[in-house]
């Protein structure tokens, strides 16, 4: 079942805010929360998606454009990897690793939130193109 294209973009905006706060405060706990959000999103159960469906979408009207859920889920899995690396950096060191990984995740989230360009989704499409199909 396809999803409202505005949902992942809303999630990216919330993620952008959370990651900015992580970089500003150095909070490993806040990054741990975002890591959990990425993990749930990769599994198809994003808390930000739930918030969008229950609170935001009823106020902005029905969707007019849809997309398949696989590319955004893949993007969440990519975000999970960067957040996990960032969590290791913030938790165990070195701190620059935490800041760098968080900064890269922030850049990707910001591109999606501000411009609707999903790097993880594009990676998914590229992987699909170069991977041989077994049918």
The major sheet is characterized as: 2 strands, antiparallel
Mean pLDDT: 96
Find the count of extended strands (DSSP E, 2+ residues): 2
Oligomer: single chain
* Contiguous runs where pLDDT drops below 50 for at least 5 residues: none
**Cα distance, first to last residue?**
21 Å
Order of helices and strands: EHHHEHHH
C-alpha Rg (nearest Å): 15 Å
Portion of residues within helices: over 70%
How many helix segments? 6
Based on the model shown, name its key terms:
single chain, 135 residues, mainly alpha, two-stranded antiparallel sheet, 78% helix, globular
Explain what you see.
- The model has no long low-confidence stretch (mean pLDDT 96).
- The two termini are 21 Å apart.
- This protein has 135 residues and is mostly helical.
- α1 (6-25) packs antiparallel against α5.
- The chain is globular, with a radius of gyration of 15 Å.
- Strands 1-2 form a two-stranded antiparallel sheet.
- The longest helix is centred in the middle third of the chain and has 23 residues, at 70-92.
- It contains 6 helices and 2 strands; from the N terminus they run βαααβααα.
- The chain has helices spanning 6-25, 28-42, 47-60, 70-92, 95-115, 119-130, and strands spanning 3-4, 66-67.
